[in-house]
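job 3f2a | input accepted
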Amino acid sequence: MQENTQQNQDVDEESKKSGRPRSESSRKSILDSTRRLLTHTTVQKLSIEAIAKKAGVGKTTIYRWWPNKSAVIMEAIFSQPAFNNVLPTPRNGVQGVTQQLDKLCRQMSGKNGRLVAEIVGEAQSNPEALKIFIQTYLQDRYDTLSSYIDGGKQTGEFDTELDTDSAIDVVLGPVFFRLISGQELDDDFIKDMTTMLIKALKA
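job 3f2a | predicted structure (203 res):
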């Protein structure tokens, strides 16, 4: 294994010197290796060195695509189909908010929830990790909720005096509190949260 790793490192360095295009297969191997490593280690304990060794590449190859460990991990996790944020076109604001809440809770249940919780924990002490988390995961959900809530205010479904940013905090706050405190984001929680949110948002 050491011999293969060194050979890959030599190839990486030679490719860099000659200006050859980066290998997409190496990039895929890095992401796959990161996902495999995270099945038996934590986000905090995982290192660039471990990812490089598992993928059979040099660290320089990783840093050509990603600025740091957090960026590698978040792309590896959030690029998976399970984390897409594709939602059916809602009939109204209520249905839109409900669908987004349900999607968010289901994405952060089980093993995936453990990974997101660890990413959130890492982001609390790492401003760069927080920025990447917002860009790669949270911003899209935030923008979607903003669109649904503003639409509901325009149609009279929701209180027109609602502050949209505060309303989004009310939606996301309980979900992330449950996540980081290790509680289940189960069907009962989703049902209760949906009922309370719609009552709070309605005009």
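job 3f2a | The radius of gyration is 20 Å.
job 3f2a | closed
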